[in-house]
Structures are given as C-alpha cells and as structure tokens.
Design goal:
Layout: H1 17-45, H2 47-63, H3 69-84, E1 88-89, H4 93-102, H5 105-111, H6 118-132, E2 137-138
Antiparallel strand pairs: 1-2
Helix pairs in contact: 2-3
Length: 139
C-alpha cells in the first residue's frame, strides 16, 4: 500500500557485519538506480496518465473531508513521487513524512486525544492533509 517497501535481510548467519553492510549498500544502490529508471520511463511513456493521477491525488488531498489510512498512503505516495520528480511545487516532503507518522491511528489517539472511532480519525487525517497541501500546485 502506498508504494512503500520494506527491505529485510534474513541471510546473516555466518556473515560479518562488514559484509552485511556492504550487501545492504549494494542493494540500496541497485534499488535507487531501478527507481530512477522507472520514474524516467513513467514520465516519458505515461506522462498524461501520471499527471492525471497526480492531479487527482492532489485534488483529493486538498479537499477531502474523510481519509482512511489506506487512501492516505496512496495519496501521499503519488504526491511524494510528483515532488521528487519536480512535477509539483509547494510540497514539503519532510512535513509529508512527518504527517504520515502522525496520521496513524494510535498517534492520533494519543496526541490529539481522539477516540478509536474510524470517522473521527478519518476526519482528522483529511484536515491534516488539507492543511499540508493547501499551497501545493502542479507544474
């Protein structure tokens, strides 16, 4: 969900810490190259579809009144991609990353004293995203 990936290493028995770090570094470098190439292909081959999806995500983020966690992740992912590719302005990626932590159920309940009621949580997520993306515009 949200184009987020978890990297894990389950083959560490008998491998030195130095070798583990080397392998991790190599894997991250390879994934970064692949991600950059995929973004370039997407921009070159599917620009219209990409811009449509970004526009829809930004429109929902700027005006929604209820956002479930799954939808929040998908919107954030699309807007983060757009910001990384320079397709939107006014998007603070650090603030977006922080908001993704803060809009999770337990965090909302503890910090904002909200009940474990889906509608109240969805309402607060939407309020957070409207404020976060109010000044974000497509290029």
């Amino acid at each position: 969900v949200g184009n987020l990936f978890v990297l894990s290493n389950q083959d560490t028995l008998g491998v030195s810490e130095t070798e583990c770090l080397f392998q991790l570094d190599q894997a991250v470098a390879m994934l970064t190259r692949e991600e950059e190439a995929a973004r370039e292909r997407l921009l070159n081959e599917q620009r219209g579809n990409l811009m449509d999806r970004i526009g829809r995500a930004l429109g929902i983020a700027q005006s929604a009144r209820l956002l479930g966690m799954g939808e929040t992740l998908m919107l954030a992912s699309m807007i983060r991609l757009a910001a990384a590719m320079g397709l939107v302005t006014g998007c603070n990626r650090k603030a977006l990353n922080q908001a993704l932590l803060e809009c999770q159920q337990a965090h909302l309940q503890l910090t904002r004293r909200l009940p474990a009621e889906p509608r109240a949580l969805a309402c607060e997520r939407a309020r957070m995203f409207r404020a976060l993306f109010a000044g974000t515009e497509m290029n």
